[in-house]
Specification:
This protein is an alpha+beta fold. It is built from 29 helices and 13 strands. Among the domains are: about 160 residues, Multidrug efflux transporter AcrB transmembrane fold (Up-down Bundle), CATH 1.20.1640; about 160 residues, Multidrug efflux transporter AcrB transmembrane domain (Multidrug efflux transporter AcrB transmembrane fold). Strands 9, 10, 11, 12 and 13 form a five-stranded antiparallel sheet that branches. The longest helix has about 35 residues.
């Protein structure tokens, strides 16, 4: 009855987990998961990676065909993209303000224009402006100037349009749209409402752009170029998904073939898959319950880590020989198997304890999956097999295994000596080189990155890596501090420290500045006098500038413009990406362009004397945070290693057996790091996480080889099972090491080298160290009654 009840209960539990995993556990696509939540600067970094204006920019280029063809395609493409509702703005050099918005902006011209001051409206200033208007009226392109002249003889509105369109930096314009300096590309700049790292929306955006371009282009020889963080994110996801699917499929096929070849039976294959499936379901549900969802990267990488869970049933299958009941054989190896699970779980605790949500999820996922696999192997697996059963392998006839099991004292001493020499070299001559720059692990090809820089330089677009973040209790304070920062940055532009910047105050000055401009506007009587004197001798009709006089007087008495007054306008959308309300109050952003000396810029910014003003160098901050994670993880690994030693001692109650179990994996990790550095690798956080996996797998090998059974047949079965486990692991991660993606390549190489070294060290060193060990008391994992 019990044998039938356990599988039924397990099936019901898995059905519940499957329902929870499919319908109640959302999968989030995020690539900013290794940033801690407890660091103020890190929070700003995470926010800007998610929603900063530079992160939402998409750069477009049209290549091929004539200039006329590219210009026409640019206008059609921009017009259609603006109708989609996906973009806060789509700019290509055209006049983007409709008549209603032009009238609205025109009415506020004397509050918004940066050229408004007292001298602008005295006799000399007005005469200079009027003479400039006369020169412009002689141009064939002066239609707008003629229309605006009666109400704006000082040209404030034209100044605003140029500022709004070009963001303070001129872009080459031909045939009414932007072009690259050499004229080979028509240029467009699009800013999405959604974060550049919201992969679901960015996939839709990229698809819409491509489909729209295909629909509006009339010449087949025109080519669309795309760049920007959102485009990179989509490209990265597609590349990683393609390679991961290809490699994981191939690895899975090879792993199934290995298990099938090892046991010559379909049943072990099906049961191994069942173990892995159960582990994944429980792991997904556990992460979903604890975190409210699961990150896509956790699911993808976690399933790879759980490949170790298949080792548990494999080791059980190997111990089944048909002369004892399955339940008895499982019970016999359970103490050692339990130690394997415990040590692996302890190794994963370093990830769970981290302040990095991605790694914390990965640690919980792995621990939950391994515990599930262990429980399945111990209590469910025996009920799914006949009471007495053995796979069709020929372990007892494998005399070749006797060669591997033969003790080799000289080889053990040699391996230990080589490892110690490598450790000495790592500590003194060539310490590990750490790769803190996540950009070095990017799957984006160099030519795509070069294209991004070309388009960014031609458009004068802000860089993703540098910006100033200002936080304040209200919008007015944020704008005032932005103005102080803008003045400072303009001076630094003159010094050559950067080429430009963007800011909300370029479009919407603080109310304090607007009131100062109001105060600079003369009273009507004085303005009339100044205007009459300035008009002396100039060919303008009397009374032509009456709208100008009325507009100035109305502006003097009117209220200043606030962010809410721009709500629902194109200009309001632009301001809203640079000035917005959040959990800290109000935040103003100043993305920087062409930064040449970040340190000097950051140091000088402190002289402004304002709290809540941060210079954010995203690359430097990301590198700092990654380095901090690495140091914290290494400390946690040290504590984890001490706990593993304690657990193994409690299991063996013999320090010699503890040394025999753990020395091989320690030597293997040293060898692993040495080989990686010899191959010219810089160790990244992905190498470190992979070494955690090596620690768990290698400890398992050491535990099984550290107390050899006096029965030769049992020793051969153990060796056979560990050979099958290590072979499948080597195949899985060996396939990953063939990847062209730096991250997958790093994971694959590290684990493949580490597993191979761990097996060799355990087979050679563990047996030699434990050969003179004192026999543990009966009932302990090392005794003949319960060992493997």
């Amino acid at each position: 009855m019990r044998r039938g009840l356990i599988p039924l209960l397990w099936l019901l539990a898995m059905l519940v987990c499957a329902w929870l995993a499919i319908f109640k556990t959302p999968v989030a696509k995020d690539i900013t998961l290794f940033i801690p939540k407890t660091d103020t600067t890190a929070e700003l970094l995470l926010e800007q990676l998610h929603s900063g204006p530079a992160a939402r920019l998409i750069l477009l280029g049209l290549e091929g065909g004539s200039e006329q063809t590219k210009a026409a395609a640019s206008k059609r493409l921009a017009g259609q993209l603006r109708k989609t509702g996906l973009f806060a703005r789509v700019a290509n050099g055209e006049d983007l303000l409709d008549q209603d918005e032009q009238r609205r902006l025109f009415s506020y011209r004397y509050l918004l224009s940066p050229t408004v001051n007292r001298a602008r409206f005295d006799e000399a200033g007005l005469r200079a402006a009027l003479q400039q208007r006369l020169r412009e009226l002689g141009s064939p392109l002066s239609t707008l100037g003629k229309t605006l002249l009666p109400g704006d003889p000082t040209g404030e509105f034209i100044t605003l349009l140029r500022t709004w369109q070009g963001s303070g930096q001129p872009v080459d314009s031909r045939l009414g749209v932007w072009f690259s300096p050499a004229g080979e590309r028509a240029l467009l700049l699009a800013e999405t409402h959604a974060s550049g790292y919201d992969l679901a929306v960015q996939e839709q955006v990229v698809t819409v752009i491509k489909d729209t371009f295909a629909a509006v282009r009339e010449a087949a020889d025109i080519k669309l170029l795309l760049s920007g963080p959102g485009v990179f994110a989509v490209l990265s996801q597609d590349t990683i998904r393609h390679e991961a699917e290809l490699l994981s499929t191939a690895a899975s096929v090879f792993m199934v073939l290995i298990v099938l070849l090892a046991y010559r039976s379909v049943r072990p294959v099906l049961l191994s898959v069942l173990v892995l499936g159960s582990a994944v379901l429980v792991a997904v549900v556990t992460v979903g319950v604890l975190f409210g969802g699961i990150f896509g990267i956790t699911l993808a990488f976690g399933i790879t880590l759980l490949g170790e869970a298949v080792d548990y049933p494999i080791l059980v299958f190997t111990q089944l020989h048909g002369h004892a009941e399955v339940a008895t054989s499982v019970q016999r190896i359970w103490p050692t198997l339990r130690l394997c699970v415990a040590t692996t779980v302890i190794g994963c605790l370093a990830m769970v304890a981290a302040d990095f949500p991605g790694l914390a999820q990965l640690g919980v996922f792995t621990i939950a999956g391994l515990l599930t696999a262990a429980v399945f192997t111990r209590w469910v697996l025996p009920t799914l097999l006949p009471a007495v059963w053995a796979p069709r392998h020929t372990v007892n006839q494998g005399d070749w295994m006797l060669v591997l099991l033969r003790p080799r004292r000289s080889l053990a001493i040699t391996l230990i000596s080589v490892s110690l020499l490598i450790l000495l070299a790592l500590l003194t001559v060539a310490p590990p080189l750490w790769e803190d720059d996540l950009a070095a692990l990017s799957p984006i090809p160099e030519d795509v990155i070069s294209l991004d820089q070309e388009l960014r330089n031609a458009l004068g677009a802000p860089e993703v890596g540098h910006l100033i973040v200002i936080t304040a209790a209200d919008a007015e304070t944020a704008l005032q501090r932005s103005e102080a920062a803008a003045t400072y940055l303009q001076a630094r532009i003159n010094d050559g420290l950067l080429s430009g910047f963007e800011a909300a105050v370029r479009y919407l000055p603080s109310q304090q500045t607007q009131r100062e401009r109001q105060a600079a506007l003369p009273e009507r009587e004085r303005l009339e006098t100044n205007l009459d004197r300035a008009l002396a001798g100039l060919p303008f009709k009397p009374g032509l500038f009456e709208p100008f006089l009325e507009a100035v007087e109305k502006t003097r008495a009117g209220p200043p413009l606030s962010p809410r007054d721009l709500h629902g306008t194109v200009l309001g959308l632009r301001v809203g990406t640079l000035l917005f309300e959040d959990t800290r109050g109000w935040t103003a952003l100043l993305p920087l362009k062409g930064v040449r000396d970040p340190n000097s810029l950051a140091q000088g910014l402190t002289q402004l004397g304002y709290a809540g003003v941060y210079y954010l160098d995203m690359k430097a901050e990301t590198n700092r945070l990654v380095a901090g994670f690495r140091n914290a993880a290494l400390i946690r690994l040290g504590w984890g290693a001490a706990l593993i030693v304690l657990v193994v001692w409690l299991g063996f109650r013999s320090w010699r057996l503890v040394l025999a179990a753990l020395l091989p994996v320690c030597l293997a990790i040293i060898m692993d790091v040495g080989v990686l550095l010899w191959l010219g690798k810089r160790l990244s956080l992905f190498h470190l996480v992979s070494l955690l996996l090596v620690l768990g797998i290698g400890t398992n090998y050491g535990l099984f080889f550290s107390h050899p059974d006096p029965d030769l047949a049992t020793r051969k079965r153990t060796l056979y099972g560990l050979l099958a486990c290590s072979s499948s692991t080597l195949v899985v991660f060996g396939m990953l090491s063939l990847s062209t993606l730096p991250v997958l390549n790093a994971i694959g190489q590290t684990v493949a080298i580490g597993v191979f070294a761990s097996f060799c060290m355990a087979l050679t060193v563990a047996q030699q160290v434990s050969s003179t060990a004192v026999k543990p008391a009966a009932g302990q994992p090392g005794s003949g009654t319960v060992q493997q």
